[in-house]
């Protein structure tokens, strides 16, 4: 989509559709919309007076000017209560407008800046939210099908004050980089597992590195064996598809002068559960078990494109979890790359095995903070549903920055505890720890899994994000998140890195 900054009044636009907004409960259009209403001979006032539109969040109405202005349509969107207006409200409202415009086969749309003036947003914040909501909402994955409707091709942001146009343009350019990276994440998660293999993920990461100037290294099985990555390789050994360990670095040449942040994502490209076999229903969505790794690749693309002033490393351990004569089994004991021995009690607790070796590897970068993200446990879905991801952290400051990033992006996190009792449930008679407490303690999965990962961390600050319920959606409950892959985690992690670079952790 081509996003343009236009200086002038919205009513002067000759676009296929123009977009205006109203707060909930307004008896008449506010200052920002009143001039448009006058040009429409009071059509918006009449819409309110009719009771058909009250400005509630999610409301959309379409007016046809009949020659009153040059634009062919006016799309009116509700913002909800004025006192609650923030970037997420505007992001969702813009997405609703974009989806309606797509249904109307609009090719060029223009919009006022929502929430500015009577709301609490600056012009840059409003423009960013509009651009982001629009781009995210219009994402389509066609796969091997013929290309379908893509929606509007041009979005014009009407900025009243010329002095604000430069700042708005800069903000929009940054949003385009992030939204493009989310689309990459979604494409990876939506891609069928016979096509999105570990090798394919490594190819994409390498291409992205060339595109935005990242240093990318891909380790193959022999190199992982040399590093002693026994936990990761145990999962991979049952598959005909070889594993990969992807390392993406931004500002690699400045590692000694900048803070190092390491982002780690689980990349299980398909998960049968191994010999602890999933049900048919449980296996049906397992192409998305690499969504954490996809989020890292997407986030690293954005970090590079934005040239953020940190040394940022993305690690993606990626493998299939399959069944064969070579597959790892319950009661096997394997050794991770830090020498910790692991009794396998559940081969379907495979994601933590990949992450264990990746978290050990993260330590070589001497990080100020490490954040891992993974579709790790069904228990987290039980606890939080498909509404938020679980957050565990060894650092209050790191947790604070991540929660701020979640607030800014609308990609929700909910803090959960790392109680020492969870560690007790991983005690093993034959190894340093189990990879799962087993059937005897079925109600502690999310906390125990985080405690398992904690055993492989040795740096000032670590956080684990369990995004098991967030990778994909069967229903487009949030207007800018279509059915299928959500791209969850990419915007969250980029916002986190930006906040860290701004000193939010101090």
Describe the protein in words.
This protein has 506 residues and is α/β, with parallel strands linked by helices. It folds into two domains: 2-159, Leucine Aminopeptidase, subunit E, domain 1; 180-501, 3-Layer(aba) Sandwich (Aminopeptidase), CATH 3.40.630. 37% of the residues lie in helices and 19% in strands. The chain has 16 helices and 20 strands. The strands form four sheets. Strands 7, 8, 9, 10, 11, 14, 15, 16 and 18 form a nine-stranded mixed beta sheet that branches. Strands 1-6-5-2-4-3 form a six-stranded mixed beta sheet, covered by helices on one side. A hairpin with a 5-residue loop joins strand 12 (333-335) and strand 13. The longest helix is centred in the middle third of the chain and has 29 residues, at 162-190. The chain is elongated, with a radius of gyration of 24 Å. The two termini are 38 Å apart. 54% of the residues are buried.
Précis, in short:
This protein has 16 helices and 20 strands. α13 (396-409) crosses α16.
